[in-house]
Amino acid sequence: MPTATIEQKLAQLYAALGEMLVTEKLSSIKPTTKRVGNEYITSIDFTKGTDEATAANRVSLLLNNIACLKDHLKSWCKKNGKPFTGDQLINSNRDVAIIYDLWNVDKHAELNRPSRSRSGLSPRFQEPPCTGLTFKGGGPMMVTMGMFEGGIIQTAGEASLRIAASVVDENGKGLGDLEIIALRAVAAWEAEFVKAGMKLTPPPQRQSEYKKLSGWLQAIGMQFKAELPSGATSLLMKVVNENVLVEVYDRMGKKIGDVPNETTSPELRNTLQHTFQSHVSPDHDGVIAPI
User: Do residues 6 and 59 touch, judged by C-beta distance below 8 A?
Assistant: First the structure.
């Protein structure tokens, strides 16, 4: 069997990421109504979107597709006479290391000793993966349900049904949502591929995501342009530890400011945070928008 190329492995990886979205399963989730005293209470259990085994299998596939990028990078570097930097990336990037640790736990049931945790956090899932209703800021979000028995639940915009898992450290302290950690780890690996000398073309869904985020950033920049430094013509947005940071540049490409800062209005600060904190840029270096 021929060895898969980096492009093929990335295609598999993005397919695995796509399978975390299970909005089509919403039609199988039915509201339940019960009488409590003189009242009727209707509830919806969004964890019923798929069975536990299916959710666990999709998470295992995602972890494997990300973690195995290390060996594919190593093989490419060897063939092309380039220094291999995969281990340095794992040791220096928390998200990459967490995914690598979770993959090892998935394979071996546990990390044999704390020193084997590449992240130093001994991460694990707080609960088994399951489906859940997810809302991301930035665009419109809507969940609708028919009024009568058997009514179908539907989502629109930035609301979706996804397989989710919360990652915690050995002491139970939250480390974040698996999919967000995974997306940041993928962006870091792709940046490492490019640094090694590979030429990668982002898949259509990642190009579409970047275009969407850039459009939102541009709209915010235009709306709040009076708060930006004089001469601002472009913005670079990054999310660091769930904090949205924006660098401001002039027409010569010189950085002339940062947002938010001590003079930033609460409205701009909150708009940036609400819009981008739950999103991960497909580009490890951030999202650029002209204004």
Answer: no
Q: For residue 139, what are its two tokens? A: 């665009």
Helices (H) and strands (E) in the chain, counts: 8, 13
- Tokens 């979107």 identify what position? 49
Handedness of CA 85, 91, 97, 101 (dihedral sign): positive
Chain segment 211-221, per-residue pLDDT in tens: 999 999 999 99
Tell me which residue of 259, 257, 279 sits closest to 268, measured CA to CA.
Answer: 259
Q: The whole model's pTM is what?
A: 0.83
The model's confidence at residue 180, banded by pLDDT at 50, 70 and 90, is: very high
Cα dihedral across residues 101, 80, 8, 182: positive or negative: positive
Which tokens belong to 206? 């990642």
Identify any residues that bridge with 159 across adjacent strands, giving them in sequence order.
135
Residue 149 has pLDDT above 80, yes or no: no
Q: DSSP code of 282?
A: S
12-31 burial, b at 16+ Cβ within 10 Å, e below that, comes to ebbebbebbebbebbeebee
28 with 54: CB under 8 angstroms?
no
- Tokens 């640094």 belong to which residue? 195
Contact 158, 29 (CB under 8 A): no
Please write the tens of the pLDDT for every residue from 32-83: 788 888 888 877 888 888 899 999 999 999 999 999 999 999 999 999 999 9
Q: What are phi and psi of 87, to 5 degrees?
A: -65, -35
